[in-house]
Amino acid sequence: MSDLFPVDLRSDTVTKPTPGMRKAMADAIVGDDVFGEDPTANRLHERVAEILGKEAALFVPSGTMGNQICIAAQTKPGDEVLLDENAHIFNFEGGAPALLSGVQLRPLPGSRGRLNAAQVTSTVRGGASHLPPTVMVALENTHNRAGGSVYELDELTRIRDAAHAKSLIVHLDGARIWNAAVATGCRESDIAQYADSVSVCFSKGLGAPVGSAVAGSREFVGRAHRYRKLFGGGMRQVGILAAAALYALENHRERLAEDHAKAAQLTKLLLEDGRVTVDQPVQTNILMATLGETTVSAPELARRCARDGVLFFPEGERRLRLVTHLDVPAAAIAPAADIIRKNLTP
Ligand SMILES: Cc1ncc(COP(=O)(O)O)c(C=O)c1O
User: Fold this and answer.
1) Which atom of ligand 1 is nearest to the CA of 143?
2) pLDDT bracket for residue 148 (50, 70, 90)
3) Residue whose CA is at the smallest distance from ligand 1 atom 9
4) How high does pLDDT run on average in the chain?
5) Whose CA, among 4, 27, 161, 289, lies 20 to 30 Å from 131?
6) Structural domains for the chain
7) Mean pLDDT throughout 17-21?
């Protein structure tokens, strides 16, 4: 097997810190962040707020905790939150909104994970004692399970206006907002401006080993601080991790375009086979493929390909999810596509 293998297309969370990032971590000046005394964490807070165009930001251990802090800090038990039915918050956060915040999630059918303004307006309820008060709409950009899809800024404007007209808070799960900005050709702040609270991740395409952040108004971040502590996310000499996040922000954002190009190339090569379809358009670094009737099942394909050094997750019997990232060399895409195609035949 060549040194391009294994090719790990399971997730962009598998990326490992680069030598430059490790050096930044080793050199980080640290202090006790629970006392607010970690200079590197403080620098990260300022930089994230600046990039997202928000008053303040706060480092948190994970994307899940970031989303849950944003929900807890802006709702009360019995409230209702609107979101797409394939949203990460609804499907992959262990039912946390019910457990940690006592809120009811109301999943709506999105178009490749995207809600629209009319849906928001027509779904909001409240005002009568038998109705749950809808207080928040949670968006996901890019959308993970919908294949890295991206919101157009015009649609975000309309959703924000519709939500605010009904006094809803807009939360953005921006775990991959960096990919969305690159794909849209805009700044992250152009996207984040439509949300009252944002959660972002450093440990996905940006390649940091750990970490996320929440951002919003100074007043919101003050409340988020309390929930971070309450959920067990207060960390001490966290500057070592914040240094990795800062390094990622300065060095790994623009290069996401390379990951998008790799996903586009993989899409093209898979489509050439004729037995695979891919949800289109592939806008960022995630692609969702569907196997035709004449191929092996997705779990069997995943087993065979893993044996040959290409890793990915099946999604049910006929769907696959493939993710490109920092640790997948461009030169590995064609050999990986060959292996997938070779293993399709029953
Ligand atoms: C869109 C989205 N939001 C949130 C998360 C949660 O991040 P974490 O795994 O750091 O909890 C993920 C993780 O993959 C994600 O894809």
Assistant:
1) 1
2) very high
3) 63
4) 97
5) 161
6) 19-251 (3.40.640.10), 255-342 (3.90.1150.10)
7) 98
Bridge-based pairing of strands 212-216 and 197-201 is antiparallel
pLDDT in tens, 126-147: 889 999 999 999 999 999 999 9
Q: Tell whether ligand 1 has an atom less than 6 A from the beta carbon of residue 8.
A: no
- Put residue 102 in one of left, alpha, beta given phi > 0 → left and psi -120 to 50 → alpha: left
Specify the ligand 1 atom closest to the Cα of 67: 4
pLDDT tens, residue by residue, 182-196: 999 999 999 999 999
Neighbours of 162 (CB within 10 A): 21
| Residue 323, φ and ψ in degrees, nearest 5 | -130, 125
pLDDT band (50, 70, 90) for residue 87? very high
Q: What is the pTM of this model?
A: 0.98
